[in-house]
Amino acid sequence: MKFHEFDICDDILDGIEDMGFEEATPIQEKTIPVILDGHDLIACAQTGTGKTAAYLLPVLEELSYGDSESMNTLILVPTRELALQITQMLQGFAYYLNVSSVAVYGGGTADDWSIQKTALVNGVDIVVATPGRLLSFMNQNMKGFDNLKFLILDEADRMLDMGFYDDIMRIISPLPKNRQTLMYSATMPPKIRKLAENILDNPTEVNIAISKPAAGILQCAYMAYENQKLPLISHLLKDKTDLKSIIIFSSRKANVGNIVRALKKVGFIAAGIHSDLEQKEREDVLLDFRNRKTQILVATDIIARGIDIDSIDLVINYDVPNDAPDYVHRVGRTARAAQTGVGITFISDKDQDKFLKIEQLIESEIIKLPVPVEMGVSPEYKPIVKKKRKPYKKKFKKKGGGKQN
User: Fold this and answer.
1) From CA 202, how far away is CA 296, in angstroms rounded?
2) Beta-ladder partners of 317
3) What mean pLDDT do residues 5-28 have?
């Protein structure tokens, strides 16, 4: 489906064309008409499916009818990286419109705080915010939410995983009841459905099944004890000068620095990124990696979702992801846009049950290799097979008296 087939104005279509988008993705095709018709929405779709444009385009269509003197749209997201990315994409789509926006997030400089505060005080059309920082401003009795038309929760499952449930409910409590609420989540556990029941009004449900890793990804795993992982990385990357962009994911911040130091010691240009870095440091690290100044990026799951970095040659999971869908997000950084790539996972003796869940999710058995003989004996792969529970299902019912907060 082409974007011009949607009921959106020419100025937005021009912005879409300038950004190089031509055909709508399935999540866009299924949700844009629902949003344009004014329905609340709960959508399940993984990162990389185009969900950001799926909600931004209808919002911009609403704003294209005239100037707004107060906040029209509030978008809540889990991380500052995602807030900045959404704001950048928004500016591209809205290039030919008179629409203002601001990213509100913590960890920035005093100037960042001042810019964010000024935008909220003076009025801005669209606010893209992390819950903690937005709540800080709201606690200062800042107004501007009275005419809010759209509330959007992006990566809702990630926000709940990060402990933002109470913050989200405190933010939503004073918002207008007569609004349109959209929730996007990569997974749909019971806690997400509970949140949806509390804040959505008779929503339309759209479920884009979690796709398997792209066909162009060569996947394999190595059975390795913890003390074998660093030597294994050096072994795998030795003489791999043809690989221009590599991401190594670690589930633990403590490992990031160790991996970076080990890589630098053998001559690689590597940098680490995790939540303890200042915002400017994180932006600089990502910029150098995008510009190919850094060959290897070592990261926690802070960039597994929501950060758009293309042309990754190799992804290494230093640890098995804690949640099976995160494996798809991690290896999905490579082989984008019909390219090829490699995804390698290190499986320790303690992570085997988690890896089995990944294989069950993607409905595929991944080849497992031992470490090189000189590194010693590898652990055996003997996960505990558990019976699958029946999926949690509960239909939404319209509640009288508007939304329940």
Assistant:
1) 46
2) 249, 345
3) 91
Q: What is the rounded CA–CA span in Å between residue 266 and residue 237? A: 10
What contacts 315, CB < 8 A, 6 or more positions away?
246, 247, 248, 249, 330, 331, 333, 334, 341, 342, 343, 344
Q: Which residue has the tokens 């100025």?
A: 11
Quote the distance between the C-alpha of residue 189 and its chain's center.
17
Other CB atoms closer than 10 Å to residue 258's CB: what's the count?
Answer: 16
Start-to-end CA distance of the chain, whole Å, equals 37
Helix (H) or strand (E) holding 157: helix 156-161
pLDDT tens-digit map of 155-184 = 998 898 888 999 999 999 999 999 999 999
**H/E run at residue 182:** strand 180-185
- For 238-375, where are the alpha helices, taking DSSP H only? 253-265, 279-290, 324-331, 352-362
- Give all domains of the chain, ordered by start, each with its CATH number: 3-207 (3.40.50.300), 217-375 (3.40.50.300)
- Asked whether 75 and 49 are in contact (CB, 8 A), the reply is no
Burial of 225 per CB tally in 10 Å (0-12, 13-18, 19+):
middle
Q: What is the pTM of this model?
A: 0.73
What is the SS3 assignment for 52?
A: helix
Type of residue numbered 217: I
Angle at 76 between CA 13 and CA 309, to 5 degrees: 60
**DSSP 8-state assignment for residue 216:** T
With bands split at pLDDT 50, 70 and 90, how would you rate the model's confidence at 386? low
